Amino acid sequence: MCALAALAGCTAPSGGTEREPGPAAAEISVVRGDRSYPLTVKITKWEVRRHPQLPKGEDAVHFSYRTSKKGMLPEALVELAACAVDSRDVVLLCQAIAVDNSPGEPRVEAADSWMGPGTGLHLSDTARVVLLPDQLRPGVHAGDPKDSDGYVPPSLPAPGDRLRMR
């Protein structure tokens, strides 16, 4: 069995590769490891309110953001973490947002999204919405020992995690 795994180029997951995300801020420049992308993303507005499509009327965080590309991105899709945090920078909820690199896309683009609601979450404690600068997608060759560039993205922060702020 081990010989078959070795022939296939498979390896067991190695421990200790978990990276801590970069410092969070309302405006970030996207990075993938030591490489900077020609992309900045900025939270332009946020509010806690009832989600209009959910019948229970629970609080959710609605936020708007703007992306600015200064050139073609090295990947077709960039995923980033947006997080609602309390006054002590403790995560209430995070979710991934995506920036597409399709040809013809505008250089500056506005978008919006929702976080929540969720059982046991106190989204009314949201003090701000921040972004993490790290590309969350590992790349097309992730896990392939021959072709992977070794980039391991940080995990999406969980409720209760404290973020480093810029």
Structural overview:
4% of the residues lie in helices and 39% in strands. It has 166 residues and is mainly beta. It has a domain at 21-131. The longest helix is centred in the first third of the chain and has 7 residues, at 2-8. Residues 1-16 have low confidence and may be disordered. Residues 137-166 are annotated as: Disordered.
Overall outline? globular
* Number of DSSP helical runs: 1
Q: What structural class do you assign from the helix and strand content? A: mainly beta
CA distance, first residue to last residue: 48 Å
What's the average pLDDT?
83
Please state the CA-atom Rg, rounded to the nearest Å.
18 Å
Topology:
Blueprint: H1 2-8, E1 27-32, E2 35-50, E3 59-69, E4 77-85, E5 91-100, E6 108-115, E7 128-131
Antiparallel strand pairs: 1-2, 2-3, 3-6, 4-5, 4-7
List keywords for this structure.
4% helix, 4-stranded antiparallel β-sheet, single chain, 39% strand, mainly beta, disordered N terminus, 3-stranded antiparallel β-sheet, 166 residues, globular
